[in-house]
What we know:
The protein is an alpha/beta fold. Helices cover 30% and strands 25% of the residues. It has 2 domains: 4-32 and 280-412, Lyase, Ornithine Decarboxylase, Chain A, domain 1, CATH 2.40.37; 34-276, TIM Barrel (Alpha-Beta Barrel), CATH 3.20.20.
Amino acid sequence: MNHFEYRDGRLFAEEVPVADIVRRWGTPTYVYSAATFRRHFEAFDSAFAGLTHMVCYSVKANSNIHILKLLGDMGAGVDIVSGGELYRALQAGIPGEKIVFSGVAKTAEEIAAALKANILMFNVESLDELRAIDAEAGRMGLKARVSLRINPDVDPKTHPYISTGMKKNKFGLDMDTALTGYALARDLPNVDPVGIDCHIGSQLTTLEPFLEALDKVLGFYRKLLEMGIYVGYLDLGGGLGITYNEEEPPHPSAFGAALGERLKDLPLTLILEPGRVICGNAGILVFRTVYTKQTPVKKFVIVDAAMNDLVRPSLYGSYHRIEEVEKHNRPVESVDVVGGICESTDFLARDRELPGVEPGEHLAAFSAGAYGMTMSSQYNTRRRAAEILVDGAEARCIRRRETYADLIAAEIDTEG
Length: 416
Ligand code: LLP
């Protein structure tokens, strides 16, 4: 069931016409469907029903605290990568014991905040970091639960900017260094090695790289057993892809079945850190056409959203389907959909077949619920978009549009 669908040529988010949202809150605006978040979380979680597991939603994909609350209410834990994400998660009421902390640059301050929150575990990405966690835990008189992130050197066959588990990437520890790391963790007084972690990349559209990585990680797990190190958690990260255009990623149930086959007899709690698969197709970005412009070689549809709102097309050349909010049935033409930012890479779509659009009419970019708002910026001193959450027939603003005063607030309220 798709919760963004057309009825008589009008786009609806669940039971609410998107045109009504635009009238009330303006554009550019992110619109999310609560039923879609729930359905995706439920489908993902139930895919692992046969295994002892935890779903730790990856906050970076969409970090609005109302979304974190919605998922937290369904039992989700979270994967965080910064003190800021920890703050959001705690504000949203996610308990410390459901939080895992990844990322290569955790500072002493962030480590201390996470220890104070008594998080489930740190996914450690270097030996320096392991020592820093030990030192901080020692200072606080606590013991830190850790996993070491293994870099299994597997090609996830996705965009190079979002591949993380290859030798040349900055993430995790190669297997040899990781073995040294576990021996060190065993000897350090204030850390307790409780798990193994691995995340190889994002927007994966086949299962093979996951399984290749899992096999390597399980080989590593057996080596740890030989060393007398018994861990209880296996964190396989996130990365399952979604359909933006014509991709056909495996359904979570196929992912669950494939992992289940390999893990069913092992005394391990599986942790997963899905982001995009939960929220990517739960959100759209709605914007207004400001002008159209025909040049000798191209037609531009110039809109009030830009790369500061949705940077994925500019950064990765990503495809987001674009459609009218109200269909006019005009002939199709090839256009570039661009924003008002002073960069030639500021586009939402290039050479796209779209029905003719007039100034004042609204368009929607689909599959914008993940890495949309969270990667937005204020570049060109633009206010960040509003976010609206639709639940059935109710639409509510979960982040107001920024004001001009917001844009300079931190410059006025300085410390000296
Ligand atoms: N766990 C870790 C440690 C991660 O680094 C990530 C994503 C995830 C989980 C969640 O991955 P997902 O299930 O969403 O694929 N900005 C890019 C995506 C970057 C992903 C970074 N890490 C994009 O817009 O495509």
